[in-house]
Design brief:
Layout: E1 5-14, E2 18-23, E3 26-31, E4 38-45, E5 52-62, H1 90-109, E6 117-118, E7 136-137, E8 143-146, E9 153-156, E10 170-171, E11 174-175, H2 190-202, E12 209-213, H3 219-228, E13 233-238, H4 241-250, E14 255-258, H5 261-267, E15 275-278, H6 286-295, E16 300-305, H7 308-320, E17 323-331, E18 341-348
Parallel strand pairs: 3-5, 6-17, 12-13, 12-15, 13-14, 15-16
Antiparallel strand pairs: 1-2, 1-4, 2-3, 4-5, 7-8, 8-9, 10-11, 16-18, 17-18
């Protein structure tokens, strides 16, 4: 019940910025804790008939060696909900994220994968990496952030994740045009890291054809086209029409199609492609798109994922259709939070 306090032993990390404990046989998702700690929790969500409760660790009785003082004065129970792991050393944050990715692949795709989350240049000890930052304006004109899973406001002076500069829309030395409010990776080091990972996995060759799905403003399409050359072909499919138009500016020589990816693939480009890049939103590509990709018989698929559960589900669908996970890299593009970005390589299983 909300407000209940109890002493618990904290178990493994879960997907969503919490660790899992047990209280009278019920799972409790405990924020602000670490595996192996003994803490006093206060239940924040849940009632008698629920299968799980949510709670905050409000007192640490036995601390993990990986626990550190939170750098932000607004982090912690009953405070700003923007960060999940400010109480955790950066090295341990990355290992926790790797554990989550591995657990999702094990549970949803039946795969045993060792996952090491890589640091990416561009932040300051896990801070000052958000090149786009939104605050809630208070009635008095001040700034605020929201509490976790709540509309309740927490007055703040500033967010320590906010970068001292806005986004620079560039990757590997190439500038990109992005519409006001349009999507661009928020961590300064993300575009370079992701493009390099995708190109290394796909190894595009002159004359090959490539589909860039959920292509945005053409980040991957630009460099795919450079690799496949004038004798090759790159098709970028993107749901946002402004972004799709800009992809033609950012990646001269490609073809661009604006529309729902599943709808476009159901009616167009139904011949074989050598390569596919998938960079879907958080909910993943899902079965319809995965099956459309497989129908084009690519020799390699690079899947860029911001949600490990959606990635694992889609990897399982690829496996049903004969494509196996060959390699995976994970990047810490969202330090202090539970979020992690993955790039997976899938290829046809050898018979």
């Amino acid at each position: 019940m909300v407000g209940t306090r109890a002493e618990v032993e904290v178990g493994p990390v879960g997907h969503g910025g919490f660790c899992v404990a047990r209280l009278d046989g019920r799972a409790v998702f405990v924020r602000h804790s670490l595996p192996g700690e003994r803490v006093v929790i206060e239940v924040t969500e849940g009632s008698t008939g629920d299968t799980f409760w949510r709670a905050d660790a409000v007192e640490v009785l036995s601390a993990s060696a990986d626990r550190v003082p939170a750098p932000c004065p607004y982090a912690g129970p009953d405070a700003c909900g923007g960060c999940d792991f400010q109480h955790v050393s950066l090295v341990r944050q990355r290992s926790l994220k790797g554990d989550v990715v591995a657990e999702q692949l094990r549970r949803l795709a039946g795969l045993e994968v060792d996952v090491s989350v890589e640091q990416v240049p561009g932040d300051d000890q896990g801070l000052r990496w958000r090149t786009r930052q939104r605050y809630v304006e208070r009635p008095d004109g001040g700034k605020a952030m929201r509490k976790h899973r709540s509309h309740e406001l927490v007055p703040v002076e500033e967010c320590l994740l906010e970068a001292h500069h806005g986004p620079r829309h560039a990757a590997l030395g190439v500038d990109f045009e992005v519409a006001d409010g349009g999507f661009w990776q928020v961590h300064p080091g993300a575009p370079d890291a992701l493009v390099e990972a995708v190109l290394a996995y796909l190894d595009p060759r002159p004359g090959e054809s490539a589909l860039d799905l959920y292509a945005g403003v053409g980040l991957f399409a630009r460099f795919l086209h450079e690799r496949v050359g004038e004798t090759g072909r790159v098709v970028a499919v993107e749901g946002d029409r402004r972004a799709s138009r800009l992809s033609l500016t950012n990646a001269p020589g490609i073809e661009a199609s604006a529309g729902d990816v599943g709808e476009v693939l159901a009616t167009s480009y139904d011949h074989a492609f050598d390569l596919v890049v998938l960079d879907p939103p958080r909910e993943g590509a899902k079965r319809r798109v995965v099956e459309q990709v497989v129908a084009r018989s690519p020799r390699a698929v690079a899947y860029v994922a911001c949600d490990p559960a959606a990635l694992a589900r889609d990897v399982a669908i690829f496996a049903e259709r004969g494509y196996g996970l060959v390699s995976l890299r994970a990047f810490d593009l969202f330090p202090m939070t539970h979020h992690v970005e993955c790039v997976a390589l899938l290829t046809k299983a050898r018979l």
